[in-house]
Amino acid sequence: MTASYSDFVAQARAANGRKLVKVERSGARATVTLDDPERLNPLSAQLTVQLHDALADLAADPALKAIVITGTDPAFCAGGDLQMMVDTAPQMLEGREGAADIWRWIRGQFGGIARLIVRTDKAFIAAVNGPAAGVGLAFALACDVLLLSERAKIVPAFGRIGLVPEVGNSWQLTRRLGYQRTFGLFASGQHLNGSEALELGLGNELVSHEALMPAAERWCEHVERLPDHVLAMSKPLLRNCADMSWEQAIAMEEFAEPSCFTTEAHRAGVGELLSRT
To answer: All domains of the chain, ordered by start, with CATH?
Structure first.
């Protein structure tokens, strides 16, 4: 029996199993939790589609400014679901579209989630509470803030199962670690604990396990204090400038800044500072 990418998405969306993604909202923030802890929150078809749908709904809500992504202990995300690779990939390969359907899954679901995190004008905060492997690691690295608990583990799992880095992992890691350290990480399959990851520049903060979610809440507060236009304009500017020349980056800033002068938030902020002098 063969099935297409669209069939698998439809089946995953229609499945009657339990919800594998929990969403909690509070004011201008939301927390999204991958919730299949017995299996270390792997990216099964059902969990992946639920996650994509949940994030798309939150991204479209103008009332939200910050979205925290985490996993139910003991893991953040085990990455791609190995059972799905065994059961589903062969069916896709045998179908009319062959490998193109696997490409559609990787691009439309895994890549779709990563692109949503990167392109949405909201701040995404990864609260990594345990192992973050493979595509799960890619989602964490794509976020705007990466918080590590003392139980966090960075797991570059691709080579061990005969795959290359995907969903932006190669881009994210080479820019943080350089080529040789990134190659070494994938070739050796070395796992990094939270302190090792932070020392290499992977993450904003290392906290105790119990302090992880309070730390995420503090980062939400930082984001919520930003005027709406500052968050919406700064995120694409900062994400793009690393791949620009200095001339391109400064020109982008010069075009963006005059618009800020027209906002009430700018006038109010300047007035507050002047009142203190």
So the answer is: 5-224 (3.90.226.10), 228-275 (no CATH)
